[in-house]
Amino acid sequence: MSAVALSSGDHAAAPSPATALRSGPLSGGVTVPGDKSVSHRALILGALAIGETPITGLLESEDVLSTAKACAALGARIERVGAGEWRVRGVGIGGLRTPEAPLDFGNSGTGARLMMGMVAGSPIDALFDGDSSLRRRPMRRILDPLEKMGVSVAEAAGDGRLPIRLKGPRDLIPITYESPVASAQIKSAVLLAGLGAPGETTLIEREASRDHTERMLAHFGADVRVEPYGAHGRKVTLRGRPELKPAPIAVPADPSSAAFPLVAGLIVPGSAITIKAVMTNPLRSGLLKTLKEMGASIELLCERVEGGEVVADLRVRHSALTGVDVPAERAPSMIDEYPILAVAASFARGATRMRGLSELRVKESDRLAAVAAGLAQAGVVHSIAGDDLLVEGSGAVPGGGTVATHMDHRIAMSFLILGLASDKPMKIDDISFVATSFPTFVPLMARLGAVIEVAS
Ligand code: S3P
Questions:
Q1: What percent of the chain is predicted at pLDDT more than 90?
Q2: 424 DSSP assignment
Q3: 283 C-alpha to ligand 1 centroid (Å)
Q4: pLDDT digit string, tens, across residues 182-206
Q5: Are residues 275 and 336 in the same domain?
Q6: Quick one: 263 and 117 in the same domain?
C-alpha cells in the first residue's frame, strides 16, 4: 500500500483536437468507469468518518482526484491500493484542519460545492478555487444556506464566483432550507454542513434530485429521514453530530458515462452492444425512459443490487428513433444527459422538444448554447425557445463541422458520438476535458469499433 501522488486536477494547457468518423456496426461488451457523484461522496464521507473506509470502483478522473486531494489537504489520509481501490482514513465531523494552500477543484462543480458544505462543520477556514470554467459558475446557491447556518464568506470579486474563502463557525446553526432549484449539489452541501450542527437540518426540494448523499449518509450510520414533498419533491431531515462509521463502498458504473456508448449503439447502423453493471437508480434514469419513448431497443438484463444501488446490464441495438416531448419535471433525473439526448434526437425522425433546461446554462459551459452551436456545425435543424431546445430530426445528419467544447467534457463526448454516424466526420476543438469524468472514453469506444482520431 502506498500513499498516492494526487494530481492537481490540471491538465495539459494545449488543446487536443479530435475527430470521429462514420463507423461500422459497433459490437461487444464494455464496463464504463465508476459513478462520479458516488465517487465524490465516498471520499467526502470517508474523510468525515472515524476510521478507515475501503472503496472499490472509484472513478479515477481529474474531478474526483481534485476532491481526493482536497480531502487530504483537510487532514484525511487517502491511499490508492490498486486500480479503483482506495482507502480513506477519516478525521471525524468537526475534525478537519485548515489547509495550507487554496483548495483547487479544477473543473469540478460537484467537488467544490459539496466540500463547501463539508468544511462548514469545522471551525477552520479554507479558500476554494478552480479553473476558468469553474470560476464562471454560480456559488451563491451554496453560500446562501451556508451563511444562514453561520458560515463566514469572503468572495474575491463579490459576485458569488470562485475564489471564495469560507470560515466555519464554532457553533453551526441547524436550518430548514427550501432549495430554489432542484439540485443535488445544493441539497448535499446543506446536509454535509448539517452534520456539524446540533439538532435537525432539513432540506426541501420541489423536484427530487439524485439521492446518493442521503443513501450514503444512512450507510455510514447517520439518522436521515426522507419524506415525499408535494407532487414530485422530497423533504430530507438529518440529525446533526452523528459519529459516522466507516462502511465499505462499491461504486457502481456511471449511467452518465454509459449514456455515450448507449447512444452510439442506437445511432450507428447494425450495432448490438452490451454495457455492463450500469447503475439504474430511478433518479438518474430519465435518459433511459426518454430513449425508450423514442423507440430505442434497450433491454435491462440481470438487474441486481451491488453496493446498495440497483445495477443492470444494458443490451442496446441500433434503432429507428422518433422525436418526443421531454417534460421539464424529468430534467433532474437526466440533467447531464441533454447534450447526448440532443445527438440521439438529431438521428430521430420528427421533432424532439426538451423542456425546462435553464440549469444547462450554468454547467461546465453554457450547455444550451454549446449544444445549439454544435448542432449548427453538424447541419442539424434546431432552435432554442425560452428554456426549451427543439431538434428537428430527419433520420440522418450531414456532420462535417468543428465543435467548440468550451472546457466541457460532455459537449466533447456528445459530438464525437454524433460523428460516428454522421455522413461526414465531426471534429471537436479539444478532447482533453474528457479526462475530468471518463478518462478511458477513447479506448473504450475503440473496443466497440468506433473510429475516433486524436491529434497528438
Ligand atoms: C451532481 C449534481 C448535478 C449534476 C452534476 C453532479 C452531483 O448538478 O449536474 O454533474 O453529484 O450532485 P446540480 O446539483 O447542479 O443539478
A1: 95
A2: B
A3: 12
A4: 999 999 999 999 999 999 999 999 9
A5: yes
A6: no
- 261 in a structural domain: yes
**pLDDT of res. 10:** 45
Q: How far is the CA of 75 from the centre of ligand 1 (A)?
A: 26
Which ligand 1 atom sits nearest the alpha carbon of residue 183? Answer: 14
- Hunting for cell 435518459 — which residue is that? 287
> Tens of pLDDT along 340-370?
999 999 999 999 999 999 999 999 999 999 9
Query: In terms of residue numbers, what domain contains 156?
Result: 36-250
Q: Note whether residue 191 is domain-resident.
A: yes
Question: How many Å lie between the centroid of ligand 1 and the Cα of residue 187?
Answer: 10
| Catalytic residue check, 336 | yes
Contacts of residue 158, defined as CB under 8 A and 6 or more positions apart, other chains included, come to none
Cell digits for 230? 408535494
| pTM for the whole structure | 0.97
Q: Which residues line ligand 1 (CB under 6 A)?
A: 37, 110, 183-185, 188, 210, 335-336, 359
Is the model's pLDDT at 5 over the cut of 60? no
What is residue 193's predicted lDDT score, i.e. its pLDDT?
A: 98
Nine cell digits for residue 433:
476535458
* Same domain, yes or no: 166 and 140: yes
Answer yes or no: do 131 and 183 share one domain. yes
3-state class (DSSP) for residue 450 = coil
Full DSSP string of 99-152: -SS-EE-TT-HHHHHHHHHHHHTSS-EEEEE--TTGGGS--HHHHHHHHHTT-E
Question: Torsion over CA of 41, 47, 51 and 54, rounded to 10 degrees?
Answer: 40
Q: Give the CATH number of the domain where residue 375 resides.
A: 3.65.10.10
Residue 160: Cβ-neighbour burial (10 angstroms; 0-12, 13-18, 19+): middle
Strands 50-56 and 249-250: parallel
Which of 254, 313, 336, 430 is the catalytic position? 336
Query: At residue 148, what is the residue type?
Result: K
Site to substitute for ligand 1 among 115, 140, 185, 330, most atoms within 8 A of C-beta: 185
| Residue that terminates a domain, selected from 231, 250, 269 | 250
Q: Which of 217, 250, 283 finishes a domain?
A: 250
The pLDDT tens digits of the residues spanning 285-330 come to 999 999 999 999 999 999 999 878 899 999 999 999 999 999 999 9
Domain count, the chain: 2
